[in-house]
Design brief:
By secondary structure, this protein is of the alpha+beta class. The termini are far apart. The protein is elongated, with a radius of gyration of 20 Å. A three-stranded antiparallel sheet has the order 1-2-3, with helices on one face. It has two helices and three strands.
Length: about 100
């Protein structure tokens, strides 16, 4: 996750998801913290940033959970069987099966 300005130069918090089957961008706009700010303004800014990070995490987790369920359904459709423990251990990592 990074805090980056959008094309109109207003800051935003964003996370990018990319896979061989597609990509998705999660983004939340942030208010600009003035160059000279009061303690109250800084506190409000940091509070909003923390809230945006939490919301972004929730969105990403919801998306990834749905993606895992989708992948699981595809695997069951192809093989008729699913190994939940192996899937949980290896999800998001490249798994190379040993060839004999």
């Amino acid at each position: 996750m990074t805090q980056q300005p959008t094309s109109d130069h207003s800051p935003s918090l964003k996370a990018d998801y990319a896979s061989p089957t597609g990509s998705l961008q999660f983004q939340h706009p942030l208010k600009v913290l003035p160059a000279k700010f009061s303690i109250e303004e800084k506190t409000a800014y940091l509070s909003a940033l923390r809230s945006a990070v939490t919301h972004l995490q929730e969105e990403v987790n919801t998306f990834l959970t749905a993606k895992m369920e989708e992948d699981k359904a595809i695997a069951v459709e192809r093989t008729g069987v699913t190994d939940d423990k192996k899937e949980e251990e290896n999800y998001g990592e490249e798994v190379v099966e040993d060839e004999i």
